[in-house]
Fold these 4 entries.
Entry 1:
Amino acid sequence: MLGRLNHVAIAVKDAVAAARIYKTMGADVSDAVPLPEHGVITVFAVLPNTKIEFIQPLGDNSPIQKFLDKNADGGIHHVCYEVADIIAARDALIKEGARVLGDGNPKIGAHGKPVLFLHPKDFSGALVEIEQE
Ligand code: CO
């Protein structure tokens, strides 16, 4: 069920500025992409085996604003794992008592694929995103 680590997300005040040092280290860095449905702007640094997703608040009710209020210099916000079948993964997790955030239905994420977020209390304090492969 559990596949590759798709990305590690780092919440920051300025995603383009945050990604610059990764460019210096030779990573391919994407353009900034606004995702109004998720309340963030994303920039990806592509590494050989995974990606780093910089997320910056977008709009007044960004879900990462509170995190940035607490972590003014930015910080690791979530990890994203790939799953072969997001509905099957969700249903298996719910059956085990894990909590799915939001209305429980996948949204389209930064890669145009369905994603869901899972409660940090069920994952050792880490916010987990799952993405359909
Ligand atoms: Co993500």
Entry 2:
Amino acid sequence: MNVRTVATKPFSDQKPGTSGLRKRVPVFQQPHYLENFVQSIFDSLEGYQGQTLVLGGDGRYYNQQAVQIILKMAAAAGFGRVLVGRTGLLSTPAASCVIRKNQAFGGIVLSASHNPGGPTEDFGIKYNISNGGPAPEKVTEAIYARSQVIDQYQILEANEVDLTKPGEFKLGEMTVEVIDPVTDYAQLMESLFDFDRIHELLTSGGFRACIDAMHAITGPYAHRILEQRLGAPAGTVHNGTPLEDFGGGHPDPNLVYAHDLVDILYGENAPDFGAAFDGDGDRNMILGRKFFVTPSDSLAILAANTRGVPGYKDGLAGIARSMPTSQAANRVAEKLGIECYETPTGWKFFGNLLDAGRATLCGEESFGTGSNHIREKDGLWAVLFWLNILAVRRQSVEEIVTQHWQTYGRNYYSRHDYEGVDTDRANTLVEGLRAQMAALKGKSLGRYTVDYSDDFSYTDPIDGSISQKQGIRIGFTDGSRIVFRLSGTGTQGATLRVYLESYEPDSAKQGLDPQTALAELITIADQVAQIQVHTGMEKPTVIT
Ligand code: G16
């Protein structure tokens, strides 16, 4: 085996964010940049010699080149086997599924999630551990620490390998197995949901769905599962061929970026159900006819509707949500008599709760929902769960959601994003908020009285690890909240996220537009944080 050792120097900017390392493609294309990070991952791990690694990505620009490099580095590092998706493709949930099913040592997933792709857009890389989930902070910190002192990496001298057909071959002493990216995942979905009932719903003629894969990785999964297996008419899945630049779009399933789908669901003769996914297939947006389901409500509704869903028929051990996610799920948990955990933003924080059997369902306001079936959020899973509920209840999406509000009350919710803010100015805003925290308690702001204000800190109930400074919360005595945080997934400047939530138990008052219902909190948020002053922006760039 011909392994080359290459001398290198650290790059100062290889600190993983909320979900792996994300940078513009030209940054990754610098000599040694990708190699340094991959070697830093391997150097931070112990005991992987001879073990299995899973590898794949969302198909964005640079995916193919990166897969070739990583295969040669894995061979040089001494992995025994790499399972790689055909043509280097694997959705994030499928990668998690394959890691777990094959008891792999871990996996490398190439994606920058919902960020655009293309030669000058974003690329990303993240490491997942043997439970199939994103590496916890202690691992990502070790990777970063290593990347700051690295002085060499190893790579096998070999030609490019052909990944277009399933099969096995040797690369140096390592076995490469090219797998179909969909098969294992499709089997797992079939074990969780009532496929007979969903098939009946999708083929009965009275129900129409429209699924937008946004030219990203979910296309092949949605074609195979929804159309070929469950009988949805051909054409149900739109934009189902993954493209390196996502067709020039922004593969972020929200009302702003998934506007083509929104136009269809809000147009004439609209279908009954719509959904969109992000670049790597872990996020989802759920729509009914002329109706948007907020991700926070979606989590609560899935939790309240496990009847008739085979994978969850024994009930839920608990629910977990990220701190900025609305408290709608807490109300369901309370009624079910189970725990609702509040974690920092980042799917990695759910891993321990899932592994310990404390939580069954997890969700985030950022269009992520999932369960203990894998250790990532899962877009198509959420769609199948919704279809299972619709097949059981035979009501419209809107009826299901409004009945949920009548039972539990409505948590009005919205997130306002200010993108591309100068990093120093964003930090000044956050420091300004921190400086006010202690003095806010008991203060009246408009018609609201501050109950607590703090910088969220989380102690993991399983391993006791502490994560501090996870978002500034201002909680009011009536349960309303404003949360401020800086995104950990952007690649240009800073993104300020402002999360707004109020609670309305009276069903006569549950039909407002969230921006109207939250208007006073929006004003308070601006006054307290001086958003316009610090960002120089009059309004958010994205509202979800
Ligand atoms: C990632 C994380 C999520 C998080 C989201 C937004 O999602 O896995 O847990 O909610 O980013 O994070 P931030 O608010 O820091 O930008 P994805 O889909 O981008 O991997």
Entry 3:
Amino acid sequence: MRMYDMIYAKRHGEAHSDEDIREMIAQYVAGEIPDYQMSAWLMAVCFRGMDDRELSTLTDAMAHSGDTVDLSLFGDHSVDKHSTGGVGDKTSMVVAPLVAACGLYVAKMSGRGLGHTGGTVDKLTSFPGYSVTLSAEDFLCQAQNVGVAVIGQSGNLTPADKMLYALRDVTATVDCIPLIASSIMSKKLAAGAKSIVLDVKVGSGAFLQSIEEATELAQKMTAIGRRCGRQMAAVISDMDVPLGYYIGNILEVKEAIMTLKGEGPDDLRELCLTLASQMVSLGHGISLEEAQKLTKETLDSGKALEKCCEWIAGQGGDASFILHPEKFPEATCRLELCAEEEGYISQIDTTAIGRCAQILGAGRVKKEDEIDLTAGIRMAKKTGDYVQKGDLLAILETSRGETLKEAERCYREALTISAEKPEKRPLVFAVV
Ligand code: URA
């Protein structure tokens, strides 16, 4: 394999052999291919694409470029989920204990928040004492005893993706469907679950805006997973409006707990049940109807809430906060935003809402930034709601009072208020 030939072939739309793809990834991780050549190849992929076989081989090679997790002790009963990223997306906090309470194993590595989207690992650190780093042995032991273990990503998982992602970030090659698919799926394959359910977000808070693009990404990712021996499903869900009403770490944990107690918002409950029933159907090999019945009964019986307490306590966290969420610290500064005009909220720039939460301190701009776990937004109105002048739109919360002015400007700019009632968008567009 000569990198020059790989670039030339891809530039002319030719398919690579599996052997060449594997060698290219191995050499790149070993530092034997310079970034300028890899950048040229990535750009050629953006224009020429990759066929399903090439893409599966690339993803498998990336998945095996570092450590992998062996979940074989759970047989066919290990399940994982992944969201392509959104605002107010706290589904993992509900879905993981719910699916475990249905008798499956969720041994999951989650990310930290970066940019306008949040991360499960940050939310979990809201529980005093919760450990997001466990040894491989303790991770498996927690998953086996409780059914749920959620930790941060291990240092040497998919180094090829880390290197390629950093390069894509500076060479305008991030928003390329085959490269996104291989990046996400390499991490999921390395994380070891037999069944994987993907939540592909579409809309103003997602990085894909059209349902066609989201469907293509979902099809590519499910095809890769199936070729690599995993059971796959992908849900295409709406991110044109934040999920639920709370955004920010402690606030999202509180909304997830409300959902586990049967007191959460409808959209969050519906999406959690949709994702969980897909996972239960794949993991137990039962029909979707049976899985829907089981997940709904398990959620409504309080067993998922109990499982959540076991999970948090098992990883050293103070589970009394689940039964008494008033124990969580609150932000010291609050600002109530009221409507300055009358009309329907016809559109929300959800990325800007995520950015507003980030300005308040809920998210990071740079990897090393400290986050304010108490910071965030309680939305009072969402797309389709009618507001009178003076009605409450949202409450901004932070322990860094100096951020409020800019956050208010950002929030107001994100809303479009008009006389026309907008058409209602579905929460789930399709399952692939
Ligand atoms: N998330 C990833 O992990 N990789 C991408 O390329 C895009 C989103």
Entry 4:
Amino acid sequence: MPHLNLVKSLTATFTNVHRISRFHHATAAVGCRSKTQSGERLTDPFKLGWRDLKGLYEDIRKELLISPAELKEMSEYYFDGKGKAFRPIIVVLMARACNSHHDDSRDVRASQRSVALIAEMIHTASLVHDDVIDDASSRRGKHTVNKIWGEKKAVLAGDLILSAASMALARIGNTTVISILTQVIEDLVRGEFLQLGSKESENERFAHYLEKTFKKTASLIANSCKAVSVLGCPDPVVHEIAYQYGKNVGIAFQLIDDVLDFTSCSYKMGKPTSADLKLGLATGPVLFACQQFPEMNALIMRRFSLPGDVDRARQYVLQSDGVQQTTYLAQRYCQEAIREISKLRPSPERDALIQLSETVLTRDK
Ligand code: GRG
């Protein structure tokens, strides 16, 4: 069954991760190196990646040359440089790392840069739709599209961004890449659908959570990495390395996102915190906390719907080691990502990808 295979593949690396288990080791950081594996001085992955992304948002806006003016304004709304551009950065670094591994050519090809744009466009379309589903009012420190223009128009704006991304994808003209990136759209929809349901047993709940995490967040990163590897190098071993790196970093990224929902403040995040509990969602910190406080089961089952449930659940999480356990799990995914990417030949971009996986763990927004 494809579902079971996916859960197995998400968890195969770490014995017992699909069954919720506690980690007893000290939470040593993945590593703060002063030198990278290729022996060069540390390079900021964001600075290195931006060399190939100058004009990213202008180029995306060119893809959105649409009328009428209102639809254009709505579709362009989030391409204002306020996002972290985490996905395009990973994509161009992966492109250069794979090109360098293959034939020492380090430049990013035009088709690979297009994948970076497409990844950011798919991501943004999904944010616009997500905010409609969650009835969210703020994102990136500003009002959401649905808040300003209303739900119906927001759904259409998301659709339009997705269609512009599909046109750009078709222009690359590579059927393998089209199929890799179309899989992402299916995963996003299935991930969002999974989130609408809940599971009764603790172990089922954890497997369900990891599968949702892969589909909603990691699939886009994994498959965009794979797409640029296909465009830069014919070796399927390299495609798998790129995919595995993106998958592991993507899962870690979401686990930390779920931690930040408890530990950060809304000013920093640009959106309200404890948002997951308010939406009825039990993420990593809650699932771990529930092992220490089984009375949380009832709250999870009723999706924190009674008055006071959200506050009680939050207190349980903060009294438990749910945040530390989730962070430790994210560290393990990052270690796995580093193990994968280290199979490529040394290059500044490969080292920047190693460093990037470390910044995922230390980010505060
Ligand atoms: C229209 C393609 C499409 C999908 C519809 C709604 C939906 C199905 C999927 C939702 C997917 C989603 C919004 C997942 C959340 C992923 C996530 C961690 C978002 C936050 O990413 P950041 O922190 O955001 O990189 P910025 O603002 O920096 O870009």
